């Protein structure tokens, strides 16, 4: 199973419409991949708070339409990163969409943990309240976004729902890049699952981005890592690796705190 992580340069000089079309072209170029992943809030910039309300879209707005078509054109599973969604009742959400190779909507995840300590995203957006996973022919993808990476209980819930890989779009700041790599590897090791963490490059909202998107295998080994700039990170995944790892080193069977949900 081939996965492509598109580490997009998000800066304040490029318009949302221009970036949307540019990113769609990059997705369409990944026809040799099975799964394509985009970063968090790439249309607006995760730190460009002042543009959230102005650029907010309905669920089936411009980003939905362009990304659905791009997934269909490329024939790939597409995790379209996230965008600012305006709910019909008013709240804003940090919302991720997953499309099938036919361009059909397969999953919607609204970010649960909002960053900002009562400011920024935490003040401007409502929290999602549902764990979401989506089954593809190769892997069951558990969905999380950026700051979610710091909350291991979310990933345990996704594990119990059957996830064998975690897909994590982010707009992670360069000054905390060390945490990004450390936490991605920790989530992989403790859950014996793949981690595909896709960040942004560039600077937006005055915040330099970490880049360094990373793919980690279920043993915690780094399979691929991007540099600081815009880049397409391509990696081959073995769909049976998570189950094999769990059989070879059955640590998850020894969990005592909390009860695992029944396996389906």
TrEMBL record:
Entry annotated with the keyword Zinc: no
InterPro entries according to UniProt: C-N_Hydrolase (IPR003010), C-N_Hydrolase_sf (IPR036526), UPF0012_CS (IPR001110)
GO molecular function: hydrolase activity
Keywords from the UniProt entry: Hydrolase
Stretches assigned to the CN hydrolase domain: 1-239
Coiled-coil residue spans: none
Entries under Pfam families matching the protein: CN_hydrolase (PF00795)
The protein's name in its UniProt record: Carbon-nitrogen family hydrolase
Assigned protein family: Belongs to the carbon-nitrogen hydrolase superfamily. NIT1/NIT2 family.
